Amino acid sequence: MRKFFDFICVTKTMKKYLIYGLIAIGFIIHLSCKKNTLFTSNAARLNFSADTLTFDTIFTTIGSTTAYFKVYNPYNQKVKISHIYLENTSSSVFFMNVDGDPGTSFNNVELAANDSLYVFFACKPNANKQNLPLIISENVVFEINGNLQKVNIEAYGQDAYFHKYEEIQTSLWKNDKPHVLLGSCLIDTAQTLTIEKGARIYCHPGSYLLVSGTLKSIGTKSDSILFRGDRLEHYYDELPGQWGGIVFLRNCGIGSKFEHAIIKNATTAIVLGSTYANKPNYTLSAADFLFSSAPEITINKCKIYNCEQNGIFTFFSKLHVENTLIYNCNKECVSLLYGGLSDFKHCTLANFSSNEIDHKDPILRISNYALFNGQGNLSEVNATFNNCIIIGNIANKGDKFANNFEVFIDHDLGFNASAPFNYTFDHCLLQIEPTLIDLSRLINCTTNPSDLNAIFTNKEQTNFHLTANSPALNLGSNNVGTIDDLDDKLRNSPPDVGCYEY
Q: What is the pLDDT of residues 50-60, one digit of tens each?
């Protein structure tokens, strides 16, 4: 009898759960049907992730990167967006893509219940023949159940002087609007390009400014000259390797000079001593790199930084650098290869790893040799550093980089005796490995400071002004003859070392 009642109880329980299950299934079917029905209320409104989409300044005829916003259906039923379109369809400089489909107008776009879609945009403004930025504004319109909603899109476009594969003759690049290198350009032999103070030079990926003649880029502290990549969105502000660099060829003209210039985000900012084969299948030899053909330039009160490789790279060249800051390069900030003549006065060379920079190579490299057709060749080195700072946080490495030194005197092939290797550090603050440098070359220097944070105001934020307790204060020699610093501030007596006076 108990089994019978147990069976009755179980059956009643199963019946109860069955009823509950049927109710739940019915409710799910009801919800599903409801979600698949169309929301037709004339009160329907979409939600947007932004009411305005803004592009940073972009150059006319050069496109922008892609930006987007999201469109949300806030209802438990699907909606039909009867029309999505750019308000100025025929003349718009914006390009639209709705959930993967490009176009300027879209009809009957369904959006599932509580779902969203992406709307992507790019911008390519037309030349406006004006010297100032212009504001380009456009609306994208969404029509749903007879209601219109708009999202504003705006960009700041600027006209510019565009240069592409030019052979530049003697001329002046004015500062009234930017100059954009769309492809590599050459300052021709015996020609001079003068860049006006305050000018902005923006360079397309892969473009170089080649110098066979003379380049004069002379700005002021308040009107410095800028060289950088041509992407102006904030993401690209400090990204290395956006363009090639400035290359001075052998036998180029005399008198090239940079003053109060900023050169940033290149592969290598300045290259000295390159050449090119003068006929097909020509093999370069040491005879192509003579002192008589060496390019010579002067750099004063400049900033060179965020380079994918080097800040300055020379190959048997002549280089004079003063009051200049070179920092944050993936390889050496300064690489002086195959000898040459170099002098640095009151310069700061600094390298600290960041999100963009992986600091694994010494800041400074000096070498007296090169290989041609597998044969080692030597060239005379004459390099002097007066009142300079060479400081960084190179990662621990094995072998010759074991002690975190930042100066690499590269004569480890063992055949340097037949060519003079002259280098001097006079009244400098630097990191060295004592066993790998000729200590007689150090004159009144302070080496291997224990606290790198005490030297600069804020090296993480690339502020390389000196602190009140910096070991660089009053460390310099009065005999260098530099009267002011990178900020045009007068030097004390004795002066601080590096590019800034405290």
A: 998 888 778 87
